[in-house]
């Protein structure tokens, strides 16, 4: 399976609009981070996790030509605001399956009501089917099974997803023991690490590293990164062995 990091930035992306912060002014392409998302592909299958406001740009940069479905972690705008741009896939393939918690589906129905319109729907509007994700109920994407991982982003429930020996967890602040058990024996873990300072709803770097020590994956990639974490090159040097800062357009094979 290929894992392509479409975006690795926190909600504002890097550079932040109007910011004079040195990381926002960096000329290193690894310091430019679109909103967080990954693309999983294997054989003829292709699935995207989250659909933030940079979705169109990400599909172009990665040359993604087909999407079989989108798995949502939660409803926040940096993970959902790109939904209108699924239309090229609709025109080529038909309705796109969305996998999400029932609360997230309800939220999308409210915010993107025109997508879900059943009477007199505009013919060019995006078209989707929905499949509810329920914790402790694995589901299929293509010929692989996905295990939902239930975590908390402050007070908000968020789903992470495990596909075989790969797990993707973003916007985590707390995780219960029962969910940690689902993360044993990973080859690759992707986990959020916002910055060094603590944050109310996100792991900071120390919390992410402690979590990695607990889970013991073979390799870990950090994502959902703020410009406040620092320059990619400098932060990477400080990380333990087998822990890497993800960056946009990084592709790994598992
Ligand atoms: Zn987020």
Please give a quick description of this structure.
This protein has 254 residues and is of the alpha/beta class. It has eight helices and 15 strands. It has a single domain, classed as Ribonuclease Z/Hydroxyacylglutathione hydrolase-like (Metallo-beta-lactamase, Chain A).
Structure report:
It holds the Pfam family Lactamase_B_2. This protein has 254 residues and is α/β, with parallel strands linked by helices. The protein has a single domain (2-253), classed as Ribonuclease Z/Hydroxyacylglutathione hydrolase-like (Metallo-beta-lactamase, Chain A, 4-Layer Sandwich). 22% of the residues lie in helices and 29% in strands. Strands 7, 8, 9, 10, 11, 12, 13 and 14 form an eight-stranded mixed beta sheet that branches. It is globular and about 55 Å long. Zinc ion (ZN) binds next to helix 2.
Helix/strand layout:
Layout (H helix, E strand, L loop, with lengths): L1 E6 L29 E6 L2 E5 L5 H8 L6 E3 L5 H4 L6 H7 L2 E5 L1 H10 L1 H4 L11 E5 L6 E3 L2 E10 L2 E8 L2 E4 L4 E2 L1 H4 L7 E5 L12 H11 L3 E5 L8 H7 L4 E3 L5 E3 L1
Parallel strand pairs: 3-4, 4-5, 5-6, 10-12, 12-13, 13-14
Antiparallel strand pairs: 1-2, 1-15, 2-3, 7-8, 8-9, 8-11, 9-10
Bound molecules: zinc ion.
Organism: Flavobacterium ammonificans
Protein name: MBL fold metallo-hydrolase
InterPro entries: Metallo-B-lactamas (IPR001279), RibonucZ/Hydroxyglut_hydro (IPR036866)
